[in-house]
Amino acid sequence: MTPAALSTTDFADRAKSVVPAEVWDFVEGGSGAEVTLAANIEAFDLIRVVPRVFSGVASPVTNATLLGTDVSAPLAVAPMAYQRLLHPEGELASARAAKSAGVPFTVSTFSSVSVEDVAATGALTWFQLYWFADRAVTADLVARAEDAGCRTLVLTADLPRMGKRLRDIRNGFTLPADVTAANLPETGRSSVVARHTDLLVDPALCWDDLAWLRARTRLRLVVKGVLDPADAKTAAGAGVDAIVVSNHGGRQLDGAVASAEALQDVLDAVAGRCDVLLDSGVRSGLDVLKAVALGADGVLLGRPVLWGLAADGQRGVADVLALVRDELADAMTLSGCRDVAAIRGLRCLVRSGGRR
What we know:
By secondary structure, the chain is an alpha/beta fold. 43% of the residues lie in helices and 14% in strands.
C-alpha cells in the first residue's frame, strides 16, 4: 500500500516516478541556470512568521474572497499548459478537482483541452490570455472565454518570447501527436513548444494594448507577471482588477527577483487600488499564510497541482488542494489566526531580520 502523502513534495516524488523524464523536465525546469527557480523557494524559506498566542483559535476559517468571489481558501490554480502530458484527462481532471475544492481554475491559452470543455465542468473558471501577433486571434479568445462563462481574464505580461529552457533544449522536447493547443487553430499548432509560442505570441505587447483589452471586455482583468513597482502602479492606474506578482515560475528571465521578494514593493506601489496575488514558489499551506501575511490577497498554486495530476489524476489534484488547505488551517491555528483577515495582522521577519 502506498503511504499517505504528507506534503506536496511526496506528490512530486510520485509524479517523477510515473512520467517520462523529458515530461518531468518540462514541468519542473526553469530557464537558464535556474537561479530564479531556486530563488522562489528560498525566498519563502527566508520568511519567518511571528505567531500570536492566547488567540482562542480551535477551528480556523480558511474561506476568503478572490476577485469578488467567495472561495474556500485564498488560492487559485495557476494557468499551466498541456496538462494532458501528465494524465489523459488533463485540464478536465484538474478543473473538476478545483471545483470540488471550491477554488478557481485558470485555463491556459495553451491548454490541451478547450476553454469551452473546461468551463463545462462547472468549475469557477478564469482564462489566461497570451497576446498574439494576430489581434483577431486574441479577440476571438477573449470572446470565447466570455461565451464559455469564464469570470476573469488573466493577461500574461512577461512572455515577449519564451525563456531559454535548457532542459527542454537538451532533451529535444516535443509534444506527442495527441497533445495539442486545443484553443488555437489547427494551422497554429506545432510539436515544439518554444517554436510554437515564439511564432504566435506578440513581443510588442504594450500599455496601449492593455487599454484596448480593458475597454473590450466586461470580465475582470488581471495582469500576471508584474515584478517592478512602477509597472504595478501603471497597471493599477489602467483599471486592472488585480496584479499577479510572478516571474513565471522561474521560466522566463533567469536572475529575475523572486516573487516573494518583489511583493512588498508592488503592494506599496498599488496602494490598495487593485488586488494583488502572488505566484512562483508556492509549495504549501504555510507559504499561502506567509504570502497573505505579507499583504497578498491570495496566491496561485502551480507545480504541486501538476504533481497531483500526474500521480493520480483528478483524485491526485483534489488531494493536493485538500492538503494545502489543511496545511493553511494548521498554520493558522499555530499562529493564532481565526480567519484570513487575522493572517494579515501577523508580523513577519524577512531575510536578515528585516521587518514588516
